Amino acid sequence: MMGAIVLLHRWLGIAFCLLFAMWFATGIVMHFVPFPSLTEAERIAGLAPVDRTEVRIGVADAVAASGIADATRLRLIQRSDGPVYVVSGSSHLRAVRATDGQDASVRSPEAALAIAQVHARQRGLDAAHAAVVAQADYDQWSVPNGFDRHRPLFRVALGDAAGTELYVSSRTGEVVLDTTRSERGWNLVGSVLHWIYPTVLRSNWALWDGVVWTLSLLALIAAMLGAVLGIVRSRMRRYRISSPYRGWHALHHIIGLVATVFVLTWIFSGWLSMDHGRLFSRGQLTPAEAGVIDASPDWTTAPSAERKRISPSAREVEWFAVDGSLYRRERIGLEKQVVVGPDSEEAPIVSARVIGSMVTKLATACNAPSILADSDDYPAQSVVPGGPVYRSRCGGLWFDIDSADGRVLQRLDASRRAYRWFYGALHTLDFPVLQAHPRLRDVLIVGLCALGLVFSITGIVIGWWRLRLSFVS
């Protein structure tokens, strides 16, 4: 039995030692440089105020013009070519002009360039030398599935000192992603390697999911076998652990013993990052719950005349339903918004009473919503910085709802709450006590990943020697 474990660990270790080293090294990079995205602050900053004088069709007419029968949300934004309604359904997204209801998708590079230039100027970026450099469904930075409803994307290089590139949706004409030269460079040695994210593989989600899940599982098995061998082969001499090995083998053995707990939990939790519903729930609404949250409202309850009351400072206007009633939200800035209810009363957020009424239709025995504390063990953040998030407990089922727009941010059953600890806490060390001391957390993450890297390097050296001996013999 032990001989089989030795052989399995040896050859799995040889096969995966480089992968282990890569994961630990890139984990350090990823802690400080996340994968490129357009933050909410950048998105709002890039929006120009809506020109209400050009809005000539109402909400109901815009939804009808889009052809989306199950429309659940509607946004009004200002583009370089005029105001546009963006209509969202369960699986469709379409833009129509607010002047005449005609299709507002972006088909020409010239239109995409003009949109990107306005966005850049709003953010104070230099767009004097901007140019469209590509139009494609996928590239290295636009492979996440969240962009599927916007493909193909126009990539616009601003030509500025930071090497900024903006991605414009062909469906809505919105800027949906930005990257800089620094982000791209660090992510090539960070997220792209860590997640095994080459475009050719990641563009096929099912294939990528299966490949990375399998590799992670095999790596976990190799680590577990190594832990068993390391413990069995260790010796106690005068109250200290010693190794029967010499040289690099001894170094690999001792460092492995020291790092066993971290390596096992980190590789295990990394494998769980690819769980996607295999062992734990996915935290998604059930079809019945989604039917309550995403029920298409009666758009005729938003009369066309209401556009006259839209604030001249509004950068985005959104219509959505909560508990069967239609609301309008005006984004004045990142931290400022106005919510207009069905009774025309204005407030900064959707009330707890309305959200509580909606939650009772999702599940039974629900408590009144309470505001989520910043230090909660299961954190959730509002789209508006500092905005309250309401949590309603329905027995063992919890719902976290954003007061800014009525969206369900998290559906936490017992399985999903367990996943938060088995994956999130173990892999990123986001334990509440460490979140309260970010510098200590930085030191721990870098130190532990560096220890794992050194451990992996000893495995690489031993594996190389073993391969050389195999080939020579």
UniProtKB/TrEMBL annotation:
Keywords: Membrane, Transmembrane, Transmembrane helix. Signal peptide: none annotated. Pfam families: PepSY_TM (PF03929). The chain crosses the membrane at residues 12-33, 211-232, 253-272, 443-465. InterPro entries: PepSY-ass_TM. This is Blr3280 protein. It comes from Bradyrhizobium diazoefficiens (strain JCM 10833 / BCRC 13528 / IAM 13628 / NBRC 14792 / USDA 110).
